[in-house]
Amino acid sequence: MIFIFSEVIQAGIDSGLYEVVRNGAGVALAIARNKATGQLVAHAIGAVATPYLVPVQLAVSIAQVGLQLGLSAVQMYQNHCGFQKTDRMLDDVLNSVAVLQSSTGLIGVGEVAGVVLSAVNLWETLKLREDIKQLRLEVKAGFIDLKQALNDQNAEILQRIDQVAEDIEFKNHRMILVQSHGKFVGAITCLKNASKVENMKDRNDILNLAEGMLQNALADYNNPGLCLKTSAAGHLRRMECSWIMDQMITTIYQLKGAHQVVSDRLSSLRQKIRDNSLEIIDRCKCDNELDFLFPEVTRIHTQDLPLLESWQNQVDWMKTLSPSELQELASLELPAEENSGATENTNPTEPPVELSLYKTLKQKSHYDSLRDQLRFIVKPELRQHHESYVFQRANATGYPALAPSNWQEVPDLTVANLYHYFKQQESYA
After folding, report:
1. Are 32 and 12 in contact (CB under 8 A)?
2. pLDDT digits (tens, 9 = 90+) for 234-269
3. Looking at the record's lineage, which domain of life comes first (predicted)?
4. How far is Cα 388 from Cα 79, in angstroms, rounded to an integer?
5. In the chain, N or C: fewer CB atoms in 10 Å?
6. Above 80 in pLDDT, residue 401?
7. Residue 185: strand, helix, or coil
């Protein structure tokens, strides 16, 4: 993970005056220090990765805010900055969930056409989030008005919105989601309030209340009965909401200073996202669904998961600090708001790189190969089975040149394509 620091701090890093703090394993953290004295000098203001699920600043700086709110010696001015920053991040999280679950109003419960999925794909979803942020769209009961949001789409899309709205099964789903979102909003409000309460016991009581609300909402989103007939695209949207809520529960433990719990939860969440992603890919039945899933799942696994890992690394590092070092860390001034938004995706006028990558891969592959390539992104060790099969078949059929000695240099595209080529040849034999 590459972190972004203010111009002054970055200039110091470039000159050798400062350095990025690293943990015991040599992994960079979102902190800079004076190289000569070891004194901590600044938090990062962002990261190169622009995540899909949550604002980049949540993963980069929630540890900063949580630590500062947990230590009474910090000046109230700094706490006030932390409150403002936390509130804005939490508002962004609410907007993210609203857009994700609103798209289920177009996807529906059963199978869905490709033209429908294209209206709420990765790029369109990023643009919808920006519309909410710029107050061009309003969130009501956890949903946005899809007809207003997609008024530039063709008649088929608008007709689909009406059809899904009248579907009895989806009405039941929507009712549960509305109720769950109400709990989610209540929990976010509690989080905002808790950060402003000075008394530790009162603050923890409010945080406990927020956690209870989030756990209830999360149980609704994870309800297997709501996913039985849901398509791969719809299931992805449901799981994305649950992953965000899981992060919010972890944030509560961060604000309590329960670093070991935070680390354990982040580790479990990262594994849960991988497992859920594989389940979603297994649900995928056609090109249309894969066109929707591939860019989005890729972005989550190449950007969101590294940020979660970075968050965990920072929390684990904090556990190794002495009380005086924790005090020094807590005394660092929070990044200025005008800088902290430097990495936000505020102008999604061009397709995300994941969409461009997928279009390139699609020109060189086919459905089965592409689906395997997506599995490799989620769980790289799955490649080993394909590598072994290609190696055996290439040698057995007189194509030893197709059995490389160094598989690390072979891209996923080649491995998957060769695997399915030999599978097809074997079926003809």
Report:
1. yes
2. 999 999 999 999 999 998 888 888 889 999 999 999
3. Bacteria
4. 56
5. C
6. yes
7. helix
Cα–Cα distance measured from residue 59 to residue 54, given in angstroms and rounded to the nearest whole number: 8
CB 334 within 8 Å of CB 43: yes
pLDDT at 62: 47
Helix or strand run (H / E) with residue 20:
strand 18-22
- At 330-383, the pLDDT tens digits run 777 766 654 444 444 455 678 899 999 999 999 999 999 999 999 999 999 999
Q: Which residue has the tokens 């010696």?
A: 73
What lies within 8 Å, CB to CB, of 141 at 6+ separation is: 178, 181, 182
Interatomic CA distance for residues 62 and 72, integer angstroms: 17
CA distance linking residue 102 with residue 11, whole number of Å: 44
Give the gyration radius of the chain's Cα atoms. 23
Task: Report the alpha-carbon angle 125-240-172, nearest 5.
Answer: 95
What are the angstrom distances between the C-alpha of 13 and each of 39, 61, 336, 343?
A: 14, 20, 19, 19
CB atoms within 10 A of CB 366: 12
Q: Which helix (H) or strand (E) holds 78?
A: helix 76-102
Q: Are 241 and 230 a contacting pair, CB within 8 Å?
A: no
* SS3 state of residue 31: strand
At which residue do the structure tokens 């609704």 appear? 220
The whole-model pTM stands at 0.90
DSSP codes, 320-366:
TS-HHHHHHHHTSPPPPHHHHTTT------S--HHHHHHHHHHHH--
Q: By CB neighbour count within 10 A (0-12 exposed, 13-18 middle, 19+ buried), where does 78 fall?
A: middle
Q: What is the pLDDT of residues 50-95, one digit of tens each?
A: 788 876 555 444 444 444 444 433 333 344 455 566 777 888 889 9
Work out the number of other CB atoms within 10 angstroms of the CB of residue 338.
8
Q: What confidence category does residue 426 fall into, taking pLDDT thresholds of 50, 70 and 90?
A: confident
Cβ-contact 394, 404 below 8 angstroms: no
CB-based burial of residue 156 (10 Å sphere; 0-12 exposed, 13-18 middle, 19+ buried)? Answer: exposed
At 32 the pLDDT is 93
Taking the C-alpha atoms of residue 237 and residue 102, their distance in angstroms, rounded to an integer, is: 9
